[in-house]
Write a structure and sequence with these properties.
Aspartate Aminotransferase, domain 2, 13% strand, 2 domains, seven-stranded mixed β-sheet, Aspartate Aminotransferase, domain 1, globular, alpha/beta
C-alpha cells in the first residue's frame, strides 16, 4: 500500500518485515514450539517473582536511568556500569546504533547469514545494508573487510551467530576490529554469548578499543523474551550518543526488576547452560546418525542439513504434523536447512524420533 503525497522516509518501504518463528501447528495433540530459541525452562523463579511483584505498582514510571540493572550487569559481567545502556531487547540497541550513526548515503555491513534486524534497522535509518559473504556458514572476516568502504558506518556480526549457531575466534574478531575503516563501529551481537562456557561476549575487546560495541539480551538463556529487555556495552562516546536517542522510559519497570534478579541468579543461568549443552550435543549426534549433519553450534539451537530445499520443506511439514514447530530458513537464504531450538529432554527425544521416521520414509 502507498499514498500519493504522504510518503515515508527513503528505505522504509523497501523493508521486508521481520517474520517471527511459528507458534502453532495443525498436527498433533500437543504443540511444542522450537522455532524462536526460547529457554524451555523459563526464567529464574526469582526473576519471575520480581516481575510479579513489580506488577503491584504499574502506575509508577520506571527509573529512566536503569541504574539498578546496570549496576547488577556490571557486577556479574565485570564491566563498567556507566558504559551500559538498556533497551527493549537488544533489537532496540541495534536500532539506536543505526539511528545514531547511519543515514542516507551511509552503508551498514553485515554477515551473510546474520540476524535479520541488521538490514531492517539500517533501512529504517535510511542507510544502505551491504551483505558480506560467509564461508561455509561461518562469518568471514576478509569478506567483511572487503565490503567496507568510505561510506561504511557500522559493521554487524553475531558471535555465536543466528541462525547458523557458528562462532569465530576472538583473534578473528580482533582482526576485524583492527581492519574496519576509522569512521566505522564494529557491533558484536552477543545474544547467545551465555551459552558458551567462560565467554563474555568480547567485553575485553570493547574495553580495549573505542570502535567496538557489544549487545546482549535477556530473551535467550534468561528466559525473558516476553519482557523485552536487553543491553549494550561500549565506549563512553557511543553510550552518550545512544542515550540521546533513547526514550526516557524505554524499558518497563517489571522488565527492569526481572532482569536485575535474573542476571544475578548465576546458579540458575549455569544450570540452563549445562542442560542446553547436554541436549544440544545429544540431538546433534542423533540427527547426524540418521544422515542429517549440522555445523557445530555454540547457541541453543542446531541447524541440520537436509540435502535439498524440497527435503527440508517436507521435513518441516512432517514435524508440524506431529506438533513440532521449528524454523524454516528460506528467508535467510538457507532453504536446505531447518533451525531447531534445543528444548527439554522430552522435546529433543520427540524431534529425534520424528525425524528418524521421516528419514526412514524418505529412503523407502
Amino acid at each position: 500500500m502507498s499514498h500519493n503525497t504522504i510518503i515515508p522516509q527513503p528505505g522504509i518501504l523497501t523493508i521486508s518485515p521481520y517474520v517471527q518463528g511459528k507458534s502453532a501447528a495443525t498436527g498433533g495433540n500437543r504443540v511444542t514450539k522450537l522455532s524462536a530459541n526460547e529457554n524451555p525452562h523459563g526464567p529464574s523463579p526469582l526473576a519471575r517473582a520480581a516481575y510479579i511483584e513489580a506488577a503491584g505498582a504499574l502506575e509508577v514510571y520506571p527509573n529512566s536511568s536503569h541504574a539498578e540493572l546496570r549496576a547488577a550487569i556490571a557486577k556479574v559481567h565485570a564491566v563498567e556500569a556507566e558504559r551500559v545502556i538498556c533497551g527493549a531487547g537488544s533489537d532496540e540497541i541495534i536500532a539506536f546504533l543505526c539511528k545514531a550513526y547511519a543515514g542516507v548515503g551511509d552503508e551498514v555491513v553485515y554477515s551473510q547469514y546474520g540476524f535479520a534486524m541488521y538490514p531492517i534497522s539500517a533501512l529504517a535509518a535510511g542507510a544502505t545494508p551491504v551483505q558480506a559473504a560467509e564461508s561455509e556458514r561461518h562469518t568471514d572476516v576478509d569478506s567483511l573487510l572487503a565490503a567496507c568502504t568510505a561510506r561504511t558506518k557500522l559493521v554487524f556480526i553475531a558471535n555465536p551467530n543466528n541462525p547458523t549457531g557458528t562462532m569465530i575466534s576472538e583473534s578473528a574478531v580482533a582482526r576485524l576490529a583492527n581492519g574496519i575503516p576509522p569512521q566505522a563501529l564494529l557491533v558484536l551481537d552477543g545474544a547467545y554469548a551465555e551459552f558458551v562456557e567462560g565467554f563474555n561476549g568480547h567485553a575485553a575487546l570493547v574495553e580495549a578499543r573505542d570502535n567496538v560495541v557489544m549487545t546482549r539480551t535477556f530473551s535467550k538463556i534468561y528466559g525473558l523474551g516476553g519482557a523485552r529487555i536487553g543491553w549494550g556495552y561500549g565506549p563512553d562516546h557511543v553510550i552518550d550518543a545512544l542515550n540521546r536517542v533513547r526514550g526516557p522510559f524505554n524499558v518497563s519497570a517489571a522488565a527492569l526488576a526481572a532482569a536485575e534478579v535474573a542476571v544475578q541468579d548465576v546458579a540458575y543461568t549455569e544450570k540452563c547452560r549445562i542442560e542446553n549443552a547436554k541436549w544440544r550435543g545429544w540431538l546433534r549426534d542423533e540427527l547426524a546418525a540418521i544422515g542429517l549433519p549440522s555445523d557445530e553450534s555454540f547457541a541453543n539451537f542446531i541447524v541440520p542439513h537436509f540435502g535439498s530445499a524440497q527435503a527440508a520443506a517436507e521435513a518441516d511439514a512432517y514435524l508440524q504434523s506431529k506438533g513440532l514447530v521449528v524454523r524454516a530458513l528460506n528467508g535467510y537464504g538457507l532453504p536446505e536447512h531447518l533451525r531447531i531450538t534445543i528444548g527439554d529432554e522430552i522435546a529433543c527425544r520427540a524431534v529425534a524420533a520424528t525425524l528418524a521416521g521421516f528419514m526412514k520414509g524418505a529412503r523407502a
